[in-house]
């Protein structure tokens, strides 16, 4: 018998080993082997099933199998099902995302251009009276900014700001409520259109990343009706990563730079499998965006957004590289100063309690006041004549990227084809003074304007400031070398527009801590002739800025205190050796399952923590979860409410009438399910299972129920919100 049992055990173990070996055969195979292996397994399972009846034709197909055209009807229905199932494919989703975002971008640009044209029309129509011109110039943007701030605050306050800091947090796995909803999408689009239509130094690149992410989230919810795989959280994160690329791609018509910029800005670790999604959606979106411009007769064909015409045979001389390096280093310091100034403005407004309290009551006063100040300073007949105040951001970039030299030739009849260049000409000052005043004024104006509680970004204003700084250096070089730098008896004049391109890429890269701004500049201008100077300047600017300040988005994350762990900057690498035990708080207040009311009150009074850890007991210290402080207060008020006490007294009277009990004790039960006489308790988000531990009844020396401590009520009855739990027995002593 022993041998037989031993043999049986040996055969079972061999069978288990064979089964385990068979299960591990499929691992380590190539794709072709896996395919054949799956087919063999399917055939083997079909043979094992034997003579199982074949599935009947679905009942919805029975009505189509009768009549002359039965095969056609069945084929049409099957094609319909096939198309509906294919709606859930990635490429269809990405095409829809790119198409919607291109339409949104084009419609917003059209509305913004209309608003700016209306302001110019009002300003030009009142040229007989300077006072009326000033009132129109100031009132128009103030009304638009005030409407944008009020509309956003009422509909969805989450739409305020850039949106890239929130997307960085969401892509890290943190759930931010109401940031990817339809009402936030509507508030962001309308608020951003009004904010940019006012002419304030604000950008659209950051908000468009947020808008594309919201569009992707809404499309996922819609397409989940056709396939449940869109409810997968990992898949939604991948689609959000692709949407961030679409936002930049349709904003600047720069798909390659958009993908790289979205990777640098939003992702710490990027899955390579999302590469094709981002490029496909961004390319399709940029294509539709430019096709719409051709359809609206804004362009003759699909061209770059800010087309430049620099010479290609000799774009720059090697002796100009030190000047480009100076632009990069200076832009690094300027970018760090911009981030520092923006953060200090926000902190100053928050630390001044009187100002903060006043602005909290008058929420629309701060944006209106900032808009009034900036509009007054940019008024063209006033101080704006020294800083090209009448130009929009697009016109400013077009003039700064011009390939002519202003300092040598001035503003002559040669520039009639670009009449907007007259804004840089002033009879009582030269172009250098105008550029310096423009850079200094726009610098602090942009840092102040980006703190307004409206949907806005900071990339485009910084881009314009960098272009102006590069233009200033280029004009200075052209003035120092009027005939260009001589090389082998050939004279090539200096092109200041190339310096403007380098400065724009360097300063925007320094503020955002990205290198992909170089690629965005190449796609914006349509020329790659200055690739070497641009890369040198962008890398130097990043090296300087990263050593001084965090990026603008990380700075906003710190200001908003979002749950995001930023990267360590230069000079802080020794902090990689810091352990958790070095920074954790050891003397922490906690709640146990056996905690009495007195202990719970003591914990609530002794700490101000928003979440309290829940452990099994003080001896084991096994963490069971956590509970919010507000939920503890709500549960206590529900358990110890006057209605609950009245119910307890009624049960006591009924028990005295129905049973003869001694004067020493009375037993009653409190059910965890809310009775009809007591108010409904607020349900916990994730209630703990009541089977963790059964709390014994309180000792005989505990105080009465009506006393101050109420120690007879165990904490378990507070945390167990499941209606199926057994009633917890509590002893009260009369």
Q: List the total number of helices.
A: 28
Which consecutive residue ranges, at least 5 long each, have pLDDT under 50? 18-31, 53-62, 409-418, 660-734
Approximate shape: globular
Q: CATH first level of the domain at 321-407 and 417-560: which class?
A: Mainly Alpha
CATH evolutionary superfamily of the domain at 321-407 and 417-560: Clc chloride channel
Strand order of the largest sheet: 3-4-5
Q: Report how far the terminal alpha carbons are from each other.
A: 68 Å
Instruction: Please state the CA-atom Rg, rounded to the nearest Å.
Output: 35 Å
Beta percentage is under 5%
Main sheet specs: 3 strands, mixed
Can you name the CATH architecture of the domain at 321-407 and 417-560? Answer: Orthogonal Bundle
CATH topology of the domain at 321-407 and 417-560: Clc chloride channel
The average pLDDT score comes to: 76
Sheet/helix structural class: mainly alpha
Subcellular location: Basolateral cell membrane; Cell projection, Axon; Cell projection, Dendritic spine membrane
Keywords: CBS domain, Cell membrane, Cell projection, Chloride, Chloride channel, Ion channel, Ion transport, Membrane, Phosphoprotein, Postsynaptic cell membrane, Repeat, Synapse, Transmembrane, Transmembrane helix, Transport, Voltage-gated channel
Organism: Zosterops hypoxanthus
GO molecular function: voltage-gated chloride channel activity
